[in-house]
Amino acid sequence: MGKFIFVTGGVLSGLGKGITSASIGLLMKSRGLKTTNIKIDPYLNYDAGTMNPYQHGEVFVLDDGGEVDLDLGNYERFLDTSLSFDHNITTGKVYSAVIEKERRGDYLGATVQVIPHITNEIKERIRRIAKEYDVVIVEVGGTVGDIESMPFLEAARQMQLEEGRENVAFVHVTYVPKLRVVGEQKTKPTQHSVKELRSLGILPDAIVARSEDPLEGVARKKISLFTNVPEEAVISAYDVEDTYEVPLLLEKEGLGRYLARRLGLGEREPDLDAWREIVEKYKSLKETVEIAVVGKYVKLADSYLSIKEALKHSSVANGVKVKIRWVEAEDIEKYGIKLIEGVDGIIVPGGFGARGTEGKMMAIKYARENDIPFLGICFGFQLTVVEFARNVLGMKGAHSTEIDPQTPHPVVDLLPEQRGINHLGGTMRLGAYPVKIKPNTLARRVYSKELVYERHRHRWEVNPKFIEKFEDAGLIFSGISGDDKRRMEILELPENRYFIATQFHPEFKSRPMNPAPVFRELVKAAK
Ligand code: GLN
Prior knowledge:
Blueprint: E1 3-9, H1 17-29, E2 35-41, H2 53-56, E3 60-61, E4 67-68, H3 71-79, E5 88-90, H4 91-104, H5 114-130, E6 135-140, H6 150-163, E7 168-175, E8 178-179, E9 184-185, H7 188-199, E10 206-211, H8 217-227, E11 234-238, H9 246-252, H10 255-262, H11 273-284, E12 288-295, H12 305-318, E13 321-328, H13 329-335, E14 345-348, H14 357-370, E15 374-377, H15 379-391, E16 399-400, E17 410-414, E18 429-437, H16 442-447, E19 451-458, E20 460-462, H17 467-472, E21 476-481, E22 488-492, E23 499-502, H18 517-526
Parallel strand pairs: 1-6, 1-7, 2-5, 2-6, 7-10, 10-11, 12-13, 12-14, 14-15, 15-23, 16-17
Antiparallel strand pairs: 3-4, 8-9, 17-20, 18-19, 18-21, 21-22, 22-23
Helix pairs in contact: 1-3, 1-9, 4-5, 5-6, 12-18, 13-14, 14-15
The structure holds glutamine.
Glutamine binds at residues 350-352, 378-379, 402, 457-460.
């Protein structure tokens, strides 16, 4: 069995526990250890699929169709790995498994309780994954002290007892504010949250102290003294320009070395050269292009995290920094197309529901008519079809039946298998499916491959009835589903320089060293 590193959080949420966990994963992996990450989300939802992006940011999608917390996207990008649905443990999953077992009679005779039944289920799920790895990093979502996280912290505590102290380490991420008036870093919140953690029987091995500026000597000493953590394990994680710098900072601060030693993994030199190269390249970029992202959740940039990341990867690949202009689609309806004038490229991302659809289509029309490099994703793909139907084919009132069930021209509709579904959770077309790309198309040049696997998350599809009509008018469906051939997956307009849209979400598979091809080429076209 491997080693476990639990990452907990204190003081307040949004400190970057996910990036810290992903970074620790990279520090272990770069030491030649087989490493993976698990995210625990203490909410009662079974998965992230039914949540609005304003709750926890984007819903990330895995190859196996798991709809998970966006931190799994961070893990995949930092460790350059592909995870499964089991790597996201929620209260909903744990309780429904326990209740199912109870109904089956597995616990016959016993009173089913949080301890030991829920905690056993949690430990079992963590251990099942750990089998194949040297090190597993387990991020416990939420803040220590939340009612919801109690069973998970209790399970973590038990694991240290059962696996042995030498096999389980705890990293606690806290916040060290600086009071402007006195100009002093304050350690009291950290002291209190560690006290809280210790009252649950967990003694942290390392403290990752988040702060605006590097941790001062006095503050470090104080934290060490009050939390019983050696000074070398009080890690200063001050604000950096870009999240990709965090692993390098934590390594410089000695966290990787300390944890490896603490877990008896020996002195291993990390190989972070490739990562450092990406970070340095990205930071040195001078030239910029501006790309508008026209969406409906733009007030929270995390709603489109993977798109932001894919553009970052594409920046490095093209030697040009992408500046994103976040545009609320509804604002285009109110204030007009001038909101996106002057950009070098336009993205219309995925989405659900009516709000902002007309604004998104105004942006698509603008891109199409002015030959501005364009990428439509999922709902953006569907609306590209609607825009084309309305404005090129003159099909007045054309729409997706998701938005207008009574439309005279249902150019985007449900296929029979999606009709009559009344359970909304986990029933979309989810995960990686093969897409077959036609020769002599833009898509084929972009991918230079005939068959690709991309991740999906949608219910609606281009209505097969209208395909011929579209193609006669010059729209090319250059990618179709590789399994049943009924589904349109990629469209393009050959007379434009770069006008492409995909039913799938290419952003979910974009990696720092391997950008998603349609993003990479969008940025190239914008440049
Ligand atoms: N709402 C659309 C559908 O369900 C698009 C989904 C998306 O953009 N992820 O098909």
